[in-house]
Amino acid sequence: MSSERAKKYAESLRQAANKPIDIDEKVLLRLPDYVDHEKIRRAQHVFRENFFAIFYSMYLGLVAILAIPSILNILIHTKGSSTNFTAYRRYMQTIFHTLSWFRSDLKPGTRAWESIESVRKMHLISSRSAHLANVGIISQKDLVITLFGFMGFTIVTKEKIGLHGTGQDIEDYCHFFRVLGFLTGIKDEYNCCCDNMEETYERLEVIRSEFLRPALKSPPKEFPEMTRFVANGMWCFNPRDTYDVMIFTMKRLVGVPNYWYTEKEIPKGCDRSKMELYKLSTYARFMNWFVAFIHEYLLQFKIFRMFFNMQTLFHEFLITTFPFLAIYSFGWNKAWVTILNDDKKRK
């Protein structure tokens, strides 16, 4: 950590491990005083323009946070991702909730507002259940790290993800998640997104280097099994993604030692025989190259961003209208995933 401010933030976040997200039984959402709806609309435009890159970074981020024991323990307790099917259902619901936040206004009476209320209530129920079972709580620290999972890689490793936009675009995008963090119960003092972009970068880097990197160097013993459930479940959305490639790419973005790919990433004097890249199969190494080529080269060009955005939209269309891979994997009735009251509308 380069600054005293970053060190103080890291320490405050560690102390926030004992601070719950909600205390009252009733969840009452309100917008923060600093909300800028014009910035939110521009951030939603950034999301549409970079849909493919952002979607992939969220996938990797939400897998990375499972290395945090307190987050993983809650997930194991709720049995939300304890099989391929439950992981499929949970992460598809997460996708649908996230899409609602980017496709409607963040204000009362909208689908996004209803979604955030639903998510916050689920967090409250899960946290109380885990507390009663002596598993832990969903703390301010856990929720901040989860917020990083949704947006951190797109900012601190945006060249490797392939996010393209102006400095104003990045600022608007961070403002969106600052407001979203507030709505989900994160206190401003802990929020990784703040009104100062320099400090926002610092806070995001603190989470990546001080929390995720150590956790991924020595992850919990349940981590491989749980992340494989996630990968197997998400295969129904995008069959191109394989477990080994996903894990390698995610650890590379976090900066875990030996998960280097390009020459400029490899430290001088490194023992290349220990590099994880050379432990992968030929196919996995090719797919690593393919993923890096797409995100770090092809996405520089608008025509390719449009192509991959359309491809991801097509995957979304299939999973909502005819999820044939999920039908094949889990059967007709279990393949359909909805949020809010969409199940009634489908029937």
TrEMBL record:
Segments passing through the bilayer: 51-76, 313-332
Protein name listed in UniProt: ER-bound oxygenase mpaB/mpaB'/Rubber oxygenase catalytic domain-containing protein
Listed GO MF terms: oxidoreductase activity
Keywords: Membrane, Transmembrane, Transmembrane helix
Segments forming domain ER-bound oxygenase mpaB/mpaB'/Rubber oxygenase catalytic: 67-216
